[in-house]
Structure formats: C-alpha cells, structure tokens
Amino acid sequence: MSFLSLIGVEAVKIRRSKILLILAAASVILWLPSILNAKMNFNMQAEGISPENNFFIQGFMGMCWFMFPAGMVVGTVLLSQTEKADRGLLKMLTLPLNTAKLMFAKFVILLMLAAVQILMMTGMYYISAAVSSKLLAYHFILPPLFVLKESCFLFLSAIPMIAVFWMLSVCIGTPIFSVGIGLASIVPSVLIINTKLWFAYPMAYPFFVITSEYGKLAANLDTAELELIPWIPTAIIITVLSLSISCLCFGQAERK
Predict the structure, then answer these.
(1) pLDDT tens digits, residue range 53-101?
(2) CA distance 211 to 226
(3) CB–CB of 20/118 below 8 Å?
(4) What angle do CA 82, 168, 243 make, to 5 degrees?
C-alpha cells in the first residue's frame, strides 16, 4: 500500500470520529469571550496598539497558549485510540505494511488536524470580528493576507510541539496519562517564553511567535524578538528525535 493510500485510509477513520467536532467547539469557545469583551480593546492606548490589532492578538494569544496545544493533545490521543478501540492497529500490523510508513501517515493526519484547527479558529476570528464590528460600530477586521501569514507561521512553529505530543501518545499506553502529561506541559509556556532557553521547549513555540508579533504591533510594548538561530536548528533536532522515538515505539505494545 502506498503512502498516499495510507493517508487516505487514516483520513476516513478521522471523519468517523469526534475529533473535528471537538476542534470546532474549541474554536467557538475561544472567540466567544472576545465578542463579549470587545469594548476592552479601546483601553490599550498605553501599549500603543490599535483596537483591531489588539482584538486579533489577544484572541490568537489565547489560542496559542492553551486552546490550540490542548486541542492537539486531545486530538493526538483520540487519533491513537481510534486504532486501539477495535484492535485496528493490531490488524493493520498483521498486513505486509511498513510500520514506519504507517506511523508517518498518522503523523501527517495529525498535521492536517492542526491545519484544520487553525483554519477553524481563523474563520471564527473573522466571524467574531464581524459581529464585534457590528455591535460597536468599529471596524475590527484585519486584512486577510496579514491574518493568513500569521496563521501559516503558527502552523509551522507548532510542528515540533505536535511531534512531541505524538511521541507521548505512542510511548505512553494509558490515554489519561498521555493527556495529563501533554496538558501539564502546556502550562509552563507562559513562563518559559521569558527565558533565554525558550527555543529548547517546543510547547512554547506558538505562544512565543504570537507574543513576538504583539511587540511589533504595540508601539510601547517590548517583547522578545524571534531569532531564527538557534531556534530553527533546535526545532529540527527536536522534531527528528521525537519522530524517531515514535518510529521505534510504534506498535510495540500490540506486538507483545
């Protein structure tokens, strides 16, 4: 079976699960407070940021710090559990398939879920910005090119984090432990982005990226600048190492 065929099979499994419904619910929950508290965006003169930019950045900061990583933790575990529920992974392993190819097919599906979640949250941003604009008679909607650029950058920055979450779900057989460790690893991000070693903690990458953008949009606010070195080499090493460990551990419990 080809790699693309494996991805197609995994995509069918995802459509039958509740993962997309959970991600959609998370997107709505994220932006609802932004509509309710839209007036607060006019009280940011001290930071030197416009109401529309603050509306965008505050929502995306909430997404990057917890909602998006948490969605990936839950999605990763659910993706792993779709196989274990009916002993599907054991059946797949009995076929003449390359285990590494199967593992990477699932990881590609996970990346697709990440892209879908970011698209959902971006779509909800435009909906909530439009509603807030109507309610307050102020234009909160930013140019699509700017929002799309930020969304793409967030997706790329999240790949090492997703690789680590996938490794945890593969190596830890008990779902509740995997979810617990994954969610617990998100919380320190808000502290770690203020240290010089933030680049060594992949769970902090999306939040650091949007926080750095906050500093660009707010004239009177100083935030750490995004330096590609040593971030990019470290991110590549973390991703490769996490996927390598996942390859070695994938299906080991079922084989026993």
Answers:
(1) 999 999 999 889 888 999 899 888 877 776 665 555 555 555 556 777 8
(2) 9
(3) no
(4) 95
